[in-house]
Amino acid sequence: MRNHEAVSSAKRPKFHTATPPIPYWSAKRHLTCGNPTPQPSWSAKLTPWRNSTLGKLKTANAALILCLNMDVDPPDVIKTQPCAALECWVDPRLLPASRALEAIGANLKSQYEGLSLKIQYKPILDPSQDDIRKCCQQLRRQAKDDAVLFHYNGHGVPKPTASGELWCFNRNYTQYIPVGLHDIQTWLGSPGVYIWDCSAAGHLLQNFNTIAERRDTDMNFQRGGYPVDATPFMHSIQLAACAANEQLPSCPELPADVFTSCLTSPIDMALRYFVINERLPDGVEPDMIMQLPGDLKDRRTPLGELNWIFIAITDTIAWTSFSRETFSRLYRCDLLVASLFRNFLLAERILKNYNCTPHTYPPLPATNTHPLWATWDLAVDACLRQLPDLLRNKIPPKVKGGSSPSTPPSVHDEHDVLPGRIGSVRHSSNEEDTAQSPPYVYVPNRFFADQLTAFEVWISRGGSALTRPGPRSLPLVRDFYLEEDTPKRGSLGFDEALVPRKPPDQLPIVLQVLLSQPHRLRALILLSQFLLQAAGQDLRPVLIFIWTRILAVDPSVQTDLYNNPQGYRYFTRILAMPDDGFLPNSSEHQAMCCFILSSLSRDFPNGQNACLDERVFEACLHKLDDGDFLLRQWAALCMAQLWDSSDKARADAISMHPSPTEKLIDLLCDASVEVRCAALFALQTLMGTSGAADPEKRGGGGTGTLLGLFDQDESMHLRVEVSLVTNATFQIKEDASPMCRKELLVLISCLVKEWRGYFVVCAWLYWEEDRRWRSGYDTEQEDLATEAIQEWEESLPGDNQQVAESKIILKSIFTIFLVLLDLSIDPYPEVAAHAQTIVDYVMALLLESPFSKLSCTTLKQAPELPNESNAPIEPPAARQRTQSTQSVNLPPSPNKLARPAFSRADTMTSMTNTVSNTLRRTSSFANALKSLAGGVTFPSADDGLSLFSSPSKAEFSEPLRPPSPNLNVVKYVSPYYRSAVPYTNGNAPQADQNIPQPIFFPAHVMEALMEEDMERLRARHRRHRRNGNSVPSPSRSTFSTDSTGSYLAGLGTGNNMKDVLPLKSSYFDWCTEYFTEPQMRQTEADEPGSVQYNHQVWRQRRNEQVDAEIHSQAEAAPYLPWDRSVATLQSTGHPMTMAFHSYDKHLIVANENDVVTVWDWSSKKRLNQFCNGNHRGSSITSLHLINQDVGGIILTGSDDGIIRLFRNYDPALEQGPIQLVSAFRGLERIPMQRGSGLITDWKASNGTLLIGGDSRVIQTWDAQTELHGPEIETQSDSPVTAIAAGRNVFSDTFLAGFADGAVKMFDLRVDVEEPVVTTFPGHSAWVQNICSHPTYSHQFLSAGSQDGVVKLWDVRNNREALGTWNLNPSGLSAFDVHKHTEVFAGSSAISATQWKDQKVKVQSMKKATVSTSIVVSTGHSHHHPPRGSRMSSLVFHPTEMLYGVGEPDGTVRILGCNLAAEPDY
Fold first, then answer.
1. Is 1444 helix (H, G, I), strand (E, B) or coil?
2. What DSSP state is assigned to residue 505?
3. Which of 64, 79, 1238, 1294 is the most buried (most CB within 10 A)?
4. What's the CA gap between 154 and 173, in Å, rounded?
5. What is the pLDDT of residues 977-988, one digit of tens each?
């Protein structure tokens, strides 16, 4: 798929290529975050292709009613002479009347048997009314609920009446007896198939529908409708030979029953029609048509090949002319009905030439002028041209009555061949002629080969590309594209003005060709290309592609695959094959096999067991080490479906060596985000969440019973589950991908669901410790948490090792709970919504638990604001990413956890440290739980607002809330039902004073809650042993009782809780979309000639022109003044950080709060404005524009440590609203005395983001893998104030400036503990900025904030600076260097003596004197004390000779180099 290009690049026309650098944060996962993409408006639902939506139709038997009365003509018919006489290819004039009638009945039955042999046909010859009644009733009894065919030939009776009565005979054949359609419906019942072959047949069709509709209406009115197993009469199928005012043709060249002949013997009629209307090839006479050799059932013979071509053409005409529902009902439900309607198209073509219009119900559009009829005529002509050679050695017998095909030979006895049928004439061989010349070998028709060529041309010429609505496009569901408010380009990235083209007309023909051995391989290859999969020359990869595509579109075919054991075993063998080069692109094909087998196992236990029996699990486990990320991804997903809800598979996996869970934990560090998420999904299904397609089926039950694997050691089962989730949490909690963090929360929810008691205990411990922290750890306040833990430890049974293991379990769950709190304020809304759902569920249980009934608890008290002055400041410690090396079937060892094991002395000290660190980041635990503890109403699932979204700023009217992601699907779910609110007034309900309250202590509640969890585990094991059901407890858990049978203290809570856990992942469905996406054609942006492609080509040429202009301007700019005024903008707030776009006329400005404004500086127009979403009290301290070659993404860094990325900021591109691309915590902020905020530098050449600031580490992030690299120790107690990465593409070094004035060079290749390569003397105090030299990659400049000195350094000399400029002795507020010309600039600091205005100086590195000095006003009417190191911002344009200055009053001035001035050398 990825590497399969059916059209070589050599064959493609040459275009100007648009090959910009690889854009970052632009993959599909950044557009959807693991949510399945909503289908576009033009995408219709999958049409049922196995049966009609009206129910399965099956014809059981047939009544063939022939009312001919050979000796007497009907009174209302005047026959011409000559006239049509043949009935079922029998000429009744040549036989006695009785014998002719019998021959006609036998022939009609034989013709029907040629359509379908499985049906019982009963001819009724010249019947009376009683004969019809008995026959119909008998057939209905035999058919039961299946359909009955009623074929009526009324050529020997009067035409039907206008009221819908047909005619038959009395017993003596002396009278015509009318039979009403109401009676026939009553006798025959429903469903039925009716064929009316008589003049004025339209009367029967119309009146049948009228009566049927009336009967159905009466049934609905009187009985409320039909039973489930009954079929309304209006669902009956009818075929009528002509309209109500028309008479059947009587031309002598046609048979009298031309309609029946077309329906039951189409090839005979089609060839006769060809003889009548077309010029025959040279040497072919009409009587030779009768001798066309072959068998209709043998495709290798001329007659059989023509029949095959006829079927393919009529199928294609129907498929391209009728709706999908009609086609499915009439052509794919019943073999006989499909044959009749296929042949009806021929009847319509022939009869309309004789002023007859056949009708059907359901009605069908006209097809008699379809272009494929000309293709049929061409195929017949090609076949007949070989007829003289085929008959060269054949001598036809003498034909009595002439040689015209319309005059058949006579029938001498009942054993003669059927008269008048093509291919039925006897031949005698001439042995002498045969010996003289070799027999002629029939040359197969080129019809199928030509159609395959046409199909190939359709594919190679972009037939699957999107097009505008029109005759070549799929029909629109509604007039979606004409709505005025519809954007031209949707937020999903596709152009909504484009829709798919109609499928190629040759598609049904290609399916027919699959039956032909000579064309099969080519047809499969082309079909696989149509399914947008590439093909090799071997048949195996083609079949893999086709099955992959089919299962991706319609998963219900898993039953078909299962019912053919050789089918799924075929894919298991390919999956187990070694990579020996025999299978091209083996990793990708095996990934498809994993998808096929996972689809077979999903929601289908039989398929799941079949795959387990074929050892698919072991094969997938082996493929987890493959080098192809797609195979690793789908191997993990296949494992997930194999052990989903399967105790046997889980038990086998847990006891397997090497451990599958260990391999999955290792995959959590994989370089591919999709592989990491796939591993998490596999762990989710192992832990009990459901991998089913039904979104309401969430699962539960943890790892299940494991078939009694740990019956003798229940705690081991607990340790397995806790260790598994703990290891995954440590690996993923700091992942930069929100998709990974979202999947982690689904996994954690499985553990919370089964061990909720432990989490309630941890929530209570955290709550109490939070209270102590808020009070400044008052020594007089009772330490409930510490005392409860000590009492709980003393009550633990077992030896020291068991006690230690119990403490480790509690510590691990407590750590997971802290991670949940951290993720509940995650910057990505979907992650936060998931975490809030889990946290609030735990807190709801806590507030309902016996903890709330304790007299000593503080749960009933309203939360207090934190006392920051009392918060202890602890020495910061470097954070390390914990690597997992332990097996999940062993308890986690103390030295592998985040904190040491509990002991009586340091139990709460360890917890307190973690609590304090987390609280400083989350503001307060009570704030995170305000919706529960403070009585605030839960947000609805529709508002999409996070509990922790930043409040809107009153001073800004437009940006009300931060932009949301493109698919913000996950919503917060309250643990309460809408009618059940925990506290209405912010206070817990008071217990009835008359009821004595039990006396218990916190340790008792801890024991009871943990015992409840263990009882839930025992219930799982009991289900395995007894196959019984356990007693349900709150939230569908299990009650446990003490020895006296009374409920334990911790139970009975949560009765009103909504069962919201475990959470449900949609990741598998998101991954499946990969196999439904176009693979054979390029994306719209990569397709030459498309709007997006042309726009990108224009951008590339424009960018190249800008880059070319830089060189000439950069040489002169150092010698020119920089005082040219370009624009003045009035921004919102204080413009603290700014960034120019390299090529577009865009300036991004971030103020002192969280408002980001996008300006078009050339037109002085504000393009957009939005909130960044950082926490109150924090500000944006870093700003970058990435992917500037292809547009741009805004990257912001705020001093709370969060990185956010936004797209669609330019409304001119009409890409939709601004969207959040991604967000993650870039750096753990450790408060210092002087904060610099978050300092970043972006290196586009290799996608590296360097982050420093108020921390003793500098964190590196890889934009491709979304993983952090090594944490670089700064070896300094001062915050990082500036970072500058090397300009060289392959450089692994970077520079950092510090608040103490030091400048250090770091190398990412050396030991992370000793990363400092060189230390430069730097400055006396705060380093304002560090910038690379615009010309020499080994030089850089640094500027001091307080001394105002700018120094030029060479990385090879750390002893002294190469140059020094005293730019401003009073200090610098901002400093920057132009990237292409040797010019730098700085703005003076605002001080107590200088606060009304600032000096901006532009200095050339080529001269000693200042090039330009400008005084700008600050806009202050009185002195404002500086709030930080920067009171203004200054930034150079990356390419143009411009720079921008931002002042505290919101003014942004853009100035530039005066290129028209005389240079000062």
1. strand
2. T
3. 1238
4. 15
5. 764 444 444 444
Return the bridge partners of 499, or none.
467
State the alpha helices, DSSP H only, in 236-395.
258-264, 266-277, 286-289, 302-321, 324-331, 335-351, 372-384, 387-390
Where does residue 1130 rank: exposed (0-12), middle (13-18), buried (19+ CB within 10 A)? exposed
> Is 1323 in contact with 1341 (CB distance < 8 Å)?
no
At residue 644, what is the residue type?
A: D
Residue-wise pLDDT tens digits, 454-479: 888 877 766 656 667 766 666 554 43
Question: What three-state secondary structure class fits 918?
Answer: helix
Instruction: Say what the pLDDT of residue 100 is.
Output: 92
Helices 335-351 and 97-115, packing angle to 10 deg: 120
Q: For the CA atoms of 576, 581, 584, 587, what is the dihedral angle to 10 degrees?
A: 50
Instruction: Return mean pLDDT, the chain.
Output: 79
The helix (run of H) or strand (run of E) holding residue 1260 is: strand 1257-1262
Residue 873 has pLDDT above 70, yes or no: no
Q: What is the dihedral sign for C-alpha 725, 727, 729, 735?
A: negative
Pinpoint the alpha helices (H) of 402-506: 431-436, 447-460
What's the CA gap between 307 and 337, in Å, rounded?
17
> Tokens in use for 698?
């969430």
Are 191 and 233 spatial neighbours (Cβ–Cβ below 8 Å)? no
Contacting residues for 1297 by C-beta, under 8 A, at least 6 apart = 1280, 1281, 1282, 1283, 1303, 1322, 1327, 1328, 1329, 1330, 1342
Q: How many residues does the chain have?
A: 1465
Nearest to 796 by CA among 897, 712, 715: 715
Burial of 714: CB neighbours in 10 Å, binned 0-12, 13-18, 19+: middle
Q: What are the b/e assignments for 47-73, b being 16+ CB within 10 Å? A: eeeeebebeebbbbbbbbbbbbbbeee
How far the first Cα of the chain sits from its last, in Å, is 61
d(CA 1255, CA 1247): 22
- Could you tell me the CA-to-CA distances from 1291 to 830, 1284, 1339, 1341 in Å, in that order? 37, 12, 14, 18
Inter-CA distances, 352 with 376, 798, 1462, Å: 18, 95, 90
Distances from the Cα of 875 to the Cα of 880, 917, 1234, 1255, angstroms: 16, 11, 15, 11
